Amino acid sequence: MSGVRPFRAADVPVVAALRPTAFRTSLQDGPAALTAYFNQMFVHLPWRDDALPSLVYEDGMGRVRGFLGVIPRRMRWRGTDVRVAVPTQFMVHPESRGVAGVQLMRQFLEGPQDLSLSDRGNEGARRLWERLGGRTSLLYSLFWTRPLRPTRYAIVRHAHGRLAGKAIAAARPLWDLLDAAVAILKEPAIPARAPIGRTEPLPVEWIVSHFHEFMPPGTLHRNPEDRRVQGVLARPSPPPSPLRTTGVLTPPPHAPGVRPAGPRGSRHGDS
User: H-type helices in 142-203, by residue range?
Assistant: First the structure.
């Protein structure tokens, strides 16, 4: 019998294999990287909540034909704790589109969360979201892209099919070399400036106790008192982009600031 059930760790290989059938491109290079990504995001996520599981859709033959990832968030709004669920990686096999997507989204929206929040989605997902009672915030739907690796970004964006994906993965050293040359030859759009004042590492305890000072009143934001958030900040992160919590201490009249930073002198981002 077909239907929706909670996602399990054993589903990871099947869901990873499903993704190329639903999306043309991926930032992950090949099946092994996709499998590692789904393990990290939906099995070993520090703030995983068993009451807000990711979901899979099985057809009448017991085959996984759809997936909706759920990222739980403990947030705060005007001093009140809010339980947030963020859907991501919403995908359905081409042969099961229609009822599978509706059932996945409906079961997600009927979950125990106080707020369902999605920051990106294609036109089909938006129409389904609104059909089931969700709303689209047009002002917050505007976004822009500045490729940090322009050569690779352009190639991946226009690639089609599995063969193209394999060719891109095989030629990655070449794209990286071209992007390195572009970075040297092209003047940066945002010139780097020396910071005013000095920087110092910040302990997690300081971030938690002063977090509210950097949040405008009335905004929805992460709950810094969540032990899982503190655990992520305190845990050493792996290379190539280890997380550093750095405070910028400036003399008056400048205000102090805090920001998470990657390795010194590096620029990292999704492309």
Answer: 150-157, 161-170, 172-185
